[in-house]
Amino acid sequence: MYLRQCKALLVLLIGVFATLVALNNMTDYGSNFQFVQHVLSMDTTFEGNQLRWRAFHQPWLHHLAYAVIMASETAVAILCSYGAWVLWGQRHTEAAVFNKSKAIATYGLVLGIVLWFGGFMTVGAEWFLMWQSPSWNGQQPAFRFIVVIFATLIFLHQQEPVKE
To answer: Could you tell me if residue 70 is inside a domain?
Structure first.
């Protein structure tokens, strides 16, 4: 049972993390909006970059992208927090029941990976060349988030030890 408790706790911590990230972005909109604006505008990539045609210069697209990011963070927070609650409630059940209770947490964790790997590492870092920016490069934090979330997802789905 201790492994089930640990699984629920780690999923909850991802939920708390995503909650704080979403709240920070909503309550201090301007700080991280600048990040999104600079990445999408590609205004701090290498001089003479031939790929700047990819840039979005329309402010409404910057706000839309930021809204999608915050909505995704909020969804991760809700799914992981609720998923942890469900896991905690099923911690004393048989393995098949407990395994079925992992679905909501799994959706939350996978959405977190989609957001930080798909959104920040793939779209931000590679499409908009965020990696070229000395001041608006979020690859390292995104990578840390991805690793922690992925490790939690793997741990959540590890098979339970056989009782002897």
So the answer is: yes
pLDDT reported for residue 161? 72
CA–CA gap between residue 83 and residue 85 (Å, rounded): 5
pLDDT level of residue 13 (50, 70, 90 thresholds): very high
Cα(32)–Cα(26) distance, integer angstroms: 9
pLDDT tens readout for residues 84-140: 999 999 999 999 999 999 999 999 999 999 999 999 999 999 999 999 999 999 999
CB 49 within 8 A of CB 129: yes
Please count the structural domains in the chain: 1
CB 8 within 8 Å of CB 87: yes
Encoded tokens for 125:
């870092």
* SS3 assignment, position 27: helix
The whole domain housing 23 covers 2-156
Q: Residue 31 burial by CB count (10 A; 0-12/13-18/19+): exposed, middle or buried? A: exposed
